[in-house]
Design goal:
The chain has a single domain, classed as 60s Ribosomal Protein L30, Chain: A (2-Layer Sandwich). 24% of the residues lie in helices and 29% in strands. It contains 2 helices and 6 strands, in the order βββαβαββ. The longest helix is centred in the middle third of the chain and has 18 residues. The two termini are 16 Å apart.
Length: 123
């Protein structure tokens, strides 16, 4: 029987709010929205931080961007979409996952980007 498993590790950030960083269901990994740690950076720097956090979470679960299925991306300023895409493209490669990108207010006023993902875990 398939069961939900909360991904826990000393290598992963510990959320201050009541949610899990990531959960597994069978061969699927659901990653909560990740935000940058250093908000003094521009959209490219913040995006790189977020993509590195996602990468670390995926690696902890035994997967990677090559198995990404769906991303939801939140930008506080949609005029920074092109700069966001430049960095995002570096990580997802040629076999891009499905994606939605919207402009939204985020949990902290200095955040410029947040990304969550659904990723397959290979056998």
């Amino acid at each position: 029987m398939t069961r939900r498993e909360i991904l826990k590790s000393d290598k992963l950030p510990v959320p201050a709010a009541p949610y899990s960083v990531a959960t597994k269901w069978g061969n699927l990994l659901f990653i909560s929205g990740q935000v940058p740690s250093d908000t003094s950076q521009d959209i490219a720097g913040q995006t790189r931080q977020v993509m590195e956090k996602l990468k670390a979470i995926m690696e902890e679960a035994g997967t990677g961007y090559e198995h990404a299925l769906k991303a939801t991306c939140f930008l506080t300023d949609i005029s920074e979409f092109a700069q966001f895409n430049e960095v995002y493209r570096e990580y997802v490669g040629e076999e891009k996952p499905c994606r939605s990108t919207v402009q939204a207010a985020l949990a902290g006023p200095a955040y410029k980007v947040e990304v969550d993902m659904i990723v397959g875990i290979p056998d």
